[in-house]
Amino acid sequence: MNDPAIDSPTSRTVLKFGGTSVADLDSWRTIADILRRHGGGGGADRLLVVHSALPGVTDALEVLADPGGHPREDPRATAEALLERHRAFGRELLGRVPDEVEGELEELRRLAEGVRLVGEATPRTRARILSFGERIATRIGAAFLRAEGLPVEWLDAHELLEAMDNGSRDAATRWLSAQCDPSLDSEVRARLDALPGIGLTQGFTARSREGDTVVLGRGGSDTSAAYLAGRWGADRLEIWSDVPGMFSADPRRIPTARLLRTLSYGEAQEIATTGSRVVHPRCIRAVREREIPLFLKSTRLPEMEGTQIVPRPADGSPSLKAISWKSGVILVSMETLGMWQEVGFLARAFEVFRAADLSVDLVSTSETNVTVSLDADANLLQDARLEEVAERLGKFCRVEIIRPCAAVSLVGNRIRALLHRLAPALEVFEEHRIHMLSQAANDLNFTVVVDEEEGERLARQLHRTLVSQPASPRLFGPSWEELVTDDPAERTQTWWEDSRERLLELMDGEDAAYVYHLDTVRHRVKALRELAGVDRVLFAMKANFNPEVLGAALEAGAGFECVSRGEVEAVLDLFPELARERILFTPNFAPREEYQYALEQGVRVTLDALHPIQHWPELFRDRELFVRVDPGEGAGHHEKVSTAGWRSKFGIPPSEMDELETRLGAVGAKVVGLHVHAGSGVPSQDHWARTGRFLLAMAERFPDVQVLDLGGGLPIPQRPGEVPIDLSAVGAGLEELRAARPGIEIWLEPGRFVVGEAGVLLARVTQTKGKGEARYVGVATGMNSLIRPTLYGAFHEIVNLTRLHEPRTERVQVVGPICETGDRLGMDRLLPPTGEGDVLLIATAGAYGRAMASSYNLRPPAREIVIP
Ligand code: LLP
């Protein structure tokens, strides 16, 4: 141990650990290693560790601190679970629960019980309760590190950080969203410099002037660490979490996002403010004030450099760093009734927001209109407050509230110089409204506000066109998908990894084969049928008409959605006993005789144009029909699969409903179902409920409607590291929808979701070739079996099944044998060194793979094999 008197520090480093990186024994071993690598607190390199509560603990403490606000939770049970969780954590790390931890737990239990009896807590008590997550976790963390032989001293954050009086009139803000001064403090410096080893303290909490506990608001542990770095005069702040830094987009939604190696404070602050959650903007603001370099690093990949945030951009040239997006944005548009010239208009308007304690995010002005955006999260916006604002503004301008919206931001140095590259990305927005464009005066941010549902699509499109291309290796590190492919914790094991041996055996003597895993098909149908808001699932058999796949879907309880006479016939041949009403025929520009056939068979029929009823009215006399409506806006993974809006040929627009109603009435036909399928591979989980609300409004005019068929379109993860859609959120939206009109049935007709992940294409390597920089790996089948990459630029993960666990060291183009340059299955893929005879596996190929295959070049497509 060092003697402070003779050993004044040569470097001071604050390390902050949070989230899952403090959650278990393995993580704590990693933390101990990291501290050892930093010198272990001996010598003149001083360390201060700040860490947060265990994941989820602050949420649970919220329940104890505000039982009235969480009526569904039982505060007693929550308290018991919390105590038990910390005891278990203590036992995991230390083999016991230290006395000081029991002391803290007892105090928390007492406080929580008091609040429960009274039914509510003052902001002061709430802050105290919320601070316990950090207090308890740091007690256990410190004891563990000491047991590992590190000279750690537990410090009470109250003694190091004092909140400023931020002048807020709102007591809740003062206690629960406190701020501190990051300036150097000689007392704190002396105290920390004099520590014989490593200091360890709590994030998120500080003391008020009066000496009470206050907390810093969400994301507060990062901010605490930054304040402490400032007060101590640290040379660097390291924030360790489970992601290795900032990315060019949210990597869990856009796995092609690249790690950003270096950013200026300004850029990092913009990225943090516009949606990235890696580090809180307040934290960056604090280190920026003191010009302390900030390093973002991952406990999962401790060797990796991560993101470095420094005072000035690496070079001054224009560069786009990131695309971020934020949902829950509310726009307030103020039409100025010709009073624009009037002095003080803006001042009056902003006074209204100030009085309502609403902070305005973006502002855009024109001669007659001022539009501002409000961030629903930050403002904890309640409808009542918004209405009040609208009413007050309404006294001197015309007000429109536009919600929910998403704000998609481009962030980078000198962004204005890059705007000309935006046009191709915005093309997909021809039929969508862009509510607002806003360009920040600091030239670091350009923001587009669109309907919430479109935010992710726009972000993906912008990322694809502006960032994904080969980018400067100095600024951009590896992509998220590259990082996680080799990280078992980040991927869910697929059925095909489990069945590797079996698949290789099946390929004995074969060049190429589609393999379908029927159990996955059955599971997918069941998962949808189990959603409380879904009454019926129809499998869209255009995605895959393999008889055994159809059998598995039926067995799990699906009906069928068919788009041609051929599909209806195939189902009836296979399953002659199937109740006809479980088949829905949804033709588009089909000839008259197909409608006649379907009606004669007694299957349900959807009208998707006026033509049939205008020209063949007798066919529909006294029939019960479905009507496919065009909601006016398409969705989906590619413009070619967006099946609504004026550019698509599907559906009847609302403007033609009067005529439809009259003509159907004339032949006594009834509309019993309304249908929308707006696109395929829709990334937004709100899409179906929103479509449903649209149909519900339309159902007002058709009294016989019993069914809302919300189409297919559910997406599947395609890239390693991509998160699947949150089905329960989709289901909850639909349940709410159905509650609005009891008795109505909700149907879904997914294709991709049911079979996409159930199928893989296996293909044997025929030849390899190097040509200039490019390396090609050729396989026995290509676009004749799988046309999606060629047609839509679709991504399918490709692995070398023969060498599944060998390091992937070569970047190659995977191509087929077809006489077209477009015959590529994957571009720039990482594979292990690959040779003739190896079997490549092309994943997520179960939907629209074999179904869209051809015999182009007289090369028959891969044959199909099923496994149970
Ligand atoms: N319902 C109707 C009326 C449809 O037109 C479709 C697909 C679906 C349901 C099923 O959509 P899904 O759940 O599979 O997204 N070949 C393209 C997809 C075309 C989809 C056409 N209609 C692809 O490979 O991405």
Task: Tell me the layout of helices and strands.
Layout (H helix, E strand, L loop, with lengths): L10 E7 L7 H13 L7 E7 L5 H9 L9 H20 L4 H20 L4 H8 L1 H16 L4 E3 L16 H6 L9 H8 L4 E5 L2 E3 L5 E3 L4 H13 L3 E6 L16 E3 L1 E3 H9 L7 H10 L3 E5 L8 E4 L8 E17 L9 H11 L4 E6 L3 E7 H4 L3 H11 L4 E16 L9 H4 L7 E6 L5 E7 H15 L9 E4 H6 L9 H4 L1 H7 L5 E6 H12 L6 E5 L6 H9 L3 E4 L2 H10 L8 E3 L6 H10 L2 E4 L3 H5 L8 E5 L28 H10 L3 E6 L11 H13 L7 E3 L17 H14 L4 E4 L3 H4 L3 E13 L2 E6 L8 H5 L5 E3 L9 E6 L8 E8 L7 E4 L20 E5 L1
Parallel strand pairs: 1-2, 1-7, 2-4, 3-4, 7-10, 9-11, 19-34, 20-21, 20-27, 21-22, 22-23, 23-24, 24-25, 25-26, 26-27, 29-31
Antiparallel strand pairs: 5-6, 8-18, 10-11, 12-14, 12-15, 13-14, 15-17, 16-17, 19-28, 28-29, 28-33, 30-33, 31-32
The structure holds ligand LLP.
Ligand LLP binds next to helix 28 and helix 29.
List keywords for this structure.
29 helices; about 850 residues; alpha/beta; 8-stranded mixed beta sheet; globular; disordered N terminus; binds ligand LLP
Could you explain how this protein is built, in words?
It is a single chain. The protein has about 850 residues and is an alpha/beta fold. It is built from 29 helices and 34 strands. The strands form 6 sheets. It has an 8-stranded mixed beta sheet, with helices on both faces. Helix 26 (about 685-700) links the parallel strand 25 (about 670-675) and strand 26. Helix 10 (about 265-275) runs antiparallel to helix 11. Residues about 1-5 have low confidence and may be disordered. The chain binds ligand LLP.
Radius of gyration: 30 Å
| Class of secondary structure makeup | alpha/beta
- Helical segment count: 29
Bound molecules: ligand LLP
Q: Uncertain regions: pLDDT < 50 for 5+ in a row?
A: 1-6
- Please give the number of β-strands: 34
What portion of residues belong to β-strands? 15-25%
Largest sheet data? 8 strands, mixed
The first-to-last residue Cα distance is: 64 Å
Mean pLDDT: 90
